[in-house]
Amino acid sequence: MKKIEAIIRKSKFSDVKKALHNVGVNFFTYWDVTGQGNEKQGHVYRGVAYSTSDIQRRYLSIVVNKEFEEAAVQAILKAAGTGEIGDGKIFVSDITDAYRIRTGDQGEDTLK
User: Fold this and answer.
1) Is 109 contained in some domain?
2) If phi over 0 gives left and psi between -120 and 50 gives alpha, with beta otherwise, what is residue 81?
3) Pairing between strand 88-94 and 48-52?
């Protein structure tokens, strides 16, 4: 099993969600997060421009069977990319085990 963590633009979330559903990834968790990166956002308030380094993003956490890993990563890359600084990051790590709380199922059966 693999855990895919992606930090993406909030504006691209609908596209990413649709792309993941299209490749068979139908469940994941997400949060609204704030971070800092190379992208600088400018804001205008009452005609005064100011800059902030706090960037609003969406954080996705997805656990998939190994056969869905590449399809999920490619779906995120394609749907979340704009070609501009600040598109985000994807991290992939191994999951050694999983348990379904309701039934006590263990391993890859918990993802079905």
Assistant:
1) no
2) beta
3) unpaired
Give the bridge partners for 2, in sequence order.
64, 94
pTM of the model: 0.84
Indicate which CATH number applies to the domain containing 99.
Answer: 3.30.70.120
Q: Once rounded to an integer, what is the mean pLDDT over residues 94-99?
A: 96
pLDDT, averaged across the chain: 90
Identify each DSSP E strand in the chain by its residue range.
2-9, 29-35, 41-45, 48-52, 55-64, 88-94
> Domain span at residue 38?
2-103
Does 35 or 31 have the greater pLDDT score?
31
Q: Is pLDDT above 80 for 72?
A: yes
Closest CA to 41 of 84, 81, 7: 84
Q: Residue 57, SS3?
A: strand
